[in-house]
Amino acid sequence: MIDALSLLISHGVILLAAWRLLPRADLDRDPPAQLPSAPEPHTDA
């Protein structure tokens, strides 16, 4: 009984987390990429 109860609780929490995360709109969008800064020009001394 305890094994079944622990499996039910743990899987229920995972299901609850997935249920709350899946409708989020920001899951399908990547954050805007930041452009790398221009490298310093190389000068031979």
- Radius of gyration, CA atoms, in whole angstroms: 24 Å
- Contiguous low-pLDDT stretches (5 residues minimum) are none
Number of helices: 1
Shape: elongated
SS-derived structural category: mainly alpha
Please give the share of residues in helix.
40-55%
Task: Determine the oligomeric state from the structure.
Answer: single chain
Which SSEs are present, and which pair or pack?
Blueprint: H1 2-21
Any descriptors?
mainly alpha; 45 residues; single chain
In a nutshell, what does this entry contain?
With 45 residues, this protein is an all-alpha fold. It contains 1 helix and no strands.
Describe it for me?
The protein has 45 residues and is mainly α. It contains 1 helix and no strands. The protein has one helix spanning 2-21. The longest helix has 20 residues, at 2-21.
